[in-house]
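Many groups now describe folds with learned vocabularies. In that spirit, our science desk offers one protein's residues alongside their backbone shape tokens.
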Amino acid sequence: KALNDLAFLLDLQGNYDQAKQLHERALRIRQENLGPDHPDVAESLNNLAQTLRYQGKYDEAKPLCERALRIREETLSPNHPLVAIGLNNQAGLLRDQGKYDEAKPLLER
């Protein structure tokens, strides 16, 4: 949790490279301790994807968003708030790229 909080602070300051390193470290720790399909791993994937999104690295962020959403859909209920957050984040990534037609169905779910 502390790594993520520090990474968020770095994101807010625009220190994306440092934030990315911390998000990657948090992801590794969570995967090693919780397994690859734990909801906390999805959170770390999503956090890393958002940092990449802020940098305009959409191609790198996309598979992370997709994996995070898949984990949340498989481990939580379809109406869980974290699933909604995952859908919203994936839609935001598409919206940032001007892919409004692809973003819309995610927001309508």
In short: The first helix runs from residue 2 to 12. The radius of gyration is 13 Å.
